[in-house]
Amino acid sequence: MFSKAMLLIAFFCAGLGAQTPASLLFLTEHSPPGQYLDAQGQVAGVTVELIRHLQQQLQEPGEFRLLPWGRALSMARTGESTALFETVRTPERENWFKWVGPLLHYQISLYGLRQRLGIAASELKLPGKLIACSYRNAVTAKDIMQFGFEEGRNLVLTSRSGECLDMLIAGRIDVMAITEYSLPGFALEVKQAGYELTRVQYLTERKRYLAFSKDVADERITRWQQALEQSYRDGTMRSLYQPVYAEAIILRLEDSARQTP
Fold first, then answer.
1. pTM for the model
2. Nearest to 88 by CA among 160, 50, 140, 143
3. Looking only at Cα atoms, what is the longest distance across the chain?
4. Which of 5, 71, 244, 258 is surrounded by the most beta carbons within 10 Å?
């Protein structure tokens, strides 16, 4: 039979357990250099390294899982104790999640092959006879549609990351959206195929975030935001991002932390 002292201890321990936040499930897609599967089949990349650093600072356990973007987005919207990255923050998505970031701040433009579009590609009238390509479920597809491209007519939407670049090199499409941070790697692949990228049209500037499921407590979100900004101030983010991202991208993130009171 329990004594009163033992019952009090039991209730106290139960209370402590109830206050322990649930372990987080981090969902992402294949999008190098931020996130990808390494040779051992583990989720890796510079954004993953940054999030693992934040986990360590906050003593937050969690599992990483790499999935197709559409599936990851659906799971994050309906699941609990979930964080989806790198997620573009839009008015439509604003109330779907609680946001921490930005993790990236970059520009996006439409690019084609100079050998096929000519040296005056930036003067082409869109859409004209061009065929564009974008990743399905990506916000960028809507940016492309604003120039008159339509799915089923002159816009191809793919479900596999990197497929647009393969189609561009093969001559099956004419233009595709390329982010500022992906440009060096894409340009190298195109060069190895005997071509050269040329910019056709600036699309937009965009920010990507950690999108937490709505059940995550506001206090927890605040701690993550503060830890992220601290990593921008103390040089941690710079040390991780500098080998793979342009200086302009890094400076935008550092500036965002300086602007926070």
1. 0.81
2. 140
3. 88
4. 244
* DSSP-derived secondary structure for 34-62: TBEE-TTS-EESHHHHHHHHHHHHHT--E
Query: What is the DSSP secondary-structure string of 57-123?
Result: HHT--EEEEE--HHHHHHHHHH-SSEEEEEEE--TTTGGGSEEEEEEEEEEEEEEEEHHHH-TTGGG
Q: Report the distance separating Cα 222 and Cα 228, nearest Å.
A: 10
3-class SS of residue 138: coil
CB contact burial 176-210 (16+ within 10 A = b; e otherwise)? bbbbbbbbeebeeebeeeebebbebbebeebbbbb
Residue whose C-alpha is closest to residue 45's, from 63, 62, 61, 64: 64
The 10s digit of each residue's pLDDT in 14-26 is: 444 446 779 999 9
Name the one residue in this structure whose structure tokens are 């699309």.
203
Instruction: Work out the burial of residue 1: count CB atoms within 10 Å of its CB; fewer than 13 is exposed, 13-18 middle, 19 or more buried.
Output: exposed
Q: CA torsion, points 221, 223, 225, 230, in degrees to nearest 10?
A: -170
Residues 32-43: tens digit of each pLDDT: 899 999 999 999
Which residues make Cβ contacts (< 8 Å) with residue 223, sequence separation at least 6?
58
